[in-house]
Amino acid sequence: MHDRSYALFTAVFILALAIAIGATAWWLADVDTQRRPYELATAHSVSGLTDASRVYYRGVRAGRVEAVRITPEGEIRIRIEIDRDIPITHGTFATMQTQGLTGISHLELEDTGEDPRSLATTADDPARIPLRPGLLDRLADTGEAVFDDIERIAGRIERLLSEDNIERVDGILANLETASGDFIGLQAQAETALAAIPDVAADASHSLARIDAVTADLHAFMPRLDDIADDFSQLARDGSRLSVQIEQDVGRLSDQLERDVGGLSRRIDRDVIPDLQQTLDRVYSAADDVSRLSRGIEEEPGSLIRGRLPHRPGPGERGYRPQGGQ
């Protein structure tokens, strides 16, 4: 009896396990799922991608890889099956992604949204979806340029760490040390200046008090200043009137003076100038007499005492006698 129960339990367990395995296989195979075929083409490596690899649409499982083959021209063709309810459009593209450290790859479908028209496909002529390079492919394409950049950077680092630059850095550090010492001195001066701030503030308070007093005096003086301004205005008006009157008097005096000077000039021309001319003639004659007298005195100084000697005849004149003759 015990053996029969054990055998029945084992049979039921094996049957349930077989049903579970079959259901799992049926679910994994997606036998009843209706799919549409598409094709991808690439010249890059598809390492890790195999038949039955999964296909995702924006992170959601959407189908599987049906076959991977290579053409005689060296192009890799990947045939995939996508669930019919997945919206494949002319803007859809695929990239190959690697899952962690396992090396297993899968396809990821994305849509740019630029062309929302549905991409028609058939089993005999599947539509082609663009396969863009993945991260590893882009790194491989740019690897050489990256290595060149790394080499240039290493060269620059080597030049940066040259002996000359190290000496310059040492000089900069020495200058920084000197500047630090100067800064400490400036800090001490600043502390001294800060200590003097209370005295300066007190002086400023006294100055402000004096300014307030001067301001109050100015406010008190303002009415007097207005009176002085009024007096100056009245004085300016009086000065203006006086200036006009003086200008008029000067004009009249100028006219009168011009008339008097004209009359005087005519009288001088008529009466004074002729008499003055006669007087000048007499003066010139007297000057000639004085000049002759001066020459005579100069020739015979004794004439001032004896009187003027008679004129001695000269050669050729009557009564001329040579010197020393009888």
Written description of the protein model:
This protein has 326 residues and is α/β, with parallel strands linked by helices. It has a domain at 33-134. Helix content is 60%, strand content 15%. It has four helices and eight strands. An eight-stranded mixed sheet has the order 7-1-4-3-2-6-5-8, with no helix packed on it. Strand 5 and strand 6 (105-111) form a beta hairpin. The longest helix has 137 residues, at 163-299. The N and C termini lie far apart (227 Å). 7% of the residues are buried. The model has no long low-confidence stretch (mean pLDDT 78).
Summarize the model shown.
By secondary structure, the protein is an alpha/beta fold.
The major beta sheet can be summarized as: 8 strands, mixed
Taken as a percent bin, the fraction of beta residues is 15-25%
Number of strands: 8
SSE series: HEEEEEEEEHHH
Give the strand order, joined by hyphens, for the main sheet.
Answer: 7-1-4-3-2-6-5-8
Question: Top keywords for this entry?
Answer:
single chain, 326 residues, alpha/beta, 8-stranded mixed beta sheet, 4 helices, 15% strand
Any chance you could write out the topology, listing elements then pairs?
Elements lengths: L1 H28 L5 E8 L11 E4 L2 E11 L5 E8 L8 E7 L6 E7 L15 E2 L2 E2 L2 H26 L2 H137 L3 H4 L20
Parallel strand pairs: 1-7, 2-6, 5-8
Antiparallel strand pairs: 1-4, 2-3, 3-4, 5-6
